[in-house]
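Quick one from the shared queue. A colleague (R.T.) flagged Homocysteine S-methyltransferase 3 as missing a structural entry in our internal table.

Convert sequence to structure tokens.
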Amino acid sequence: MGLGRVETSTFMSDFLEKCGGYAVLDGGFATELERHGADLNDPLWSAKCLISSPHLVRRVHLDYLDAGANIIITASYQATIQGFEAKGLSREEGEVLLRRSVEIAREAREIYYDRCTKDSWDFVEAGNISRRPILIAASVGSYGAYLADGSEYSGKYGDSVTLETLKDFHRSRVQILASAGADLIAFETTPNKLEAQAYAELLEEEGINIPAWFTFTSNDGINAASGDSILECASIADSCKQVVAVGINCTPPRYIHSLISHIRKVSSKPIVIYPNSGETYDAVNKKWVKSSGVNDEDFVSYLDKWREAGASLFGGCCRTTPNTIRAISRALFDKSNTDT
């Protein structure tokens, strides 16, 4: 474990203190795998690489650690027992791959620590190299991610998908990831309050003993992607004792400030944000439309406003890169050093 066992109630505040007040997440994962040559035109998306090219998964983790990330997120976003079985794998093989997603991230952390030098992002205290705190977050994508039809950006699952449907769908995966050695579970790209409620009840029912965060998507800066109030969504997360941070991911940067302000109205828990590049995803053709994105400099220019609004964990989602994360690290900690 990155920090060892701590009380859930103080887990994230303790971690943030060790990081210097703010923490840096990694950035886009699948888009980085593609940049390294992976073909992800597959219902498993980035999870395909757990089968075909785990070395690329490890490489991307290391790229983000080299860029200054304090938290790396596993390649399990679209990894589900149901998805693996649809590809012809057995349930047992699917379970092994879920655990492997955590193992690869842990291996990357150890490789990074082993090769750290005084010239790295780590710092020196009293002549000794102090290891930068690094956590492994096990990714749990929404039901819409499994459907591979872009519905995680709409949250429109239909009347047949009930609270019990969602709990049953996620149950095995959450159990496996929670026992695989991750430091926390990242419930990501949550598009509606029904799925947030399913996560909260599942954590309670299964007695999951590691912390979690819930992050939501938004298409307008006011509501979750489904149209559910972000206030109601964040309230569900806030009421769950295992949740140590609440926030937003895979949402254009221009919407983040207002969403932080809304979340802060109903939660005092740390706020985690990792927007996408601002580009638009074409779910029909399964590709990103490049015309509307922001560059790294513009992305980082939002940081001060996000900090002032109350966020304390920062990273990137789809189409952001290690360069984005490096720029965030430098901006946060150069600014922090100046402030002190």
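The first strand starts at residue 23 and ends at 24.
The chain is about 45% helix and 15% strand.
Added to the table.
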